[in-house]
Amino acid sequence: MSIDSLNWKILKCLQNNARQSNAEIGRQVGVSSPAVSERIKKMEDAGIIQGYHAFVSPFEAGYQLKAIITLRAFMGMLKPFLEKVKTYDEVLNCYRITGNENIVMEVVLKNQKHLESFIDQLIVYGETKTQIVLSHVIKYNEVRPIK
Fold first, then answer.
1. Where is the HTH asnC-type domain (predicted)?
2. Fewer Cβ atoms within 10 Å of its own Cβ: the N or the C terminal residue of the chain?
3. Distance from CA of residue 50 to its chain's centroid?
4. CB within 8 A of 101, min separation 6: which ones?
5. pTM
6. Is position 31 within any domain?
7. Closest alpha carbon to 91 in 116, 64, 118
8. What is the domain count for the chain?
9. Which domain holds residue 30?
């Protein structure tokens, strides 16, 4: 499915506020509510829209630290890690990457002691590097048309 300019406008609306009504989106993009609904359904069916989520503030939920942790897996430990990482509640996002490290994780932690304990669990699988996140520069940026 190709994404035409009207679909991009609808996607922009949804990425800014997925809870707004189809009628409101229709007013913003200049089509009827049923037309918006049909286009959204087609984009969902095509896998362009993959879901709708609430963004929860880790800090307001009680987490004091957010960190980026990279892992350089030991020989033979990448596959076991890829299974294990799915069980960690601390991990918000995990990416398998190219380069010296194999993995980049975004994690939330209660405090420094929790960070130490979490790293202790990881070092069985490889060498880690940790960076503490101070603030977001860009947060939940929208996907835009390719130029």
1. 3-64
2. C
3. 12
4. 70, 71, 72, 129
5. 0.86
6. yes
7. 118
8. 2
9. 5-46
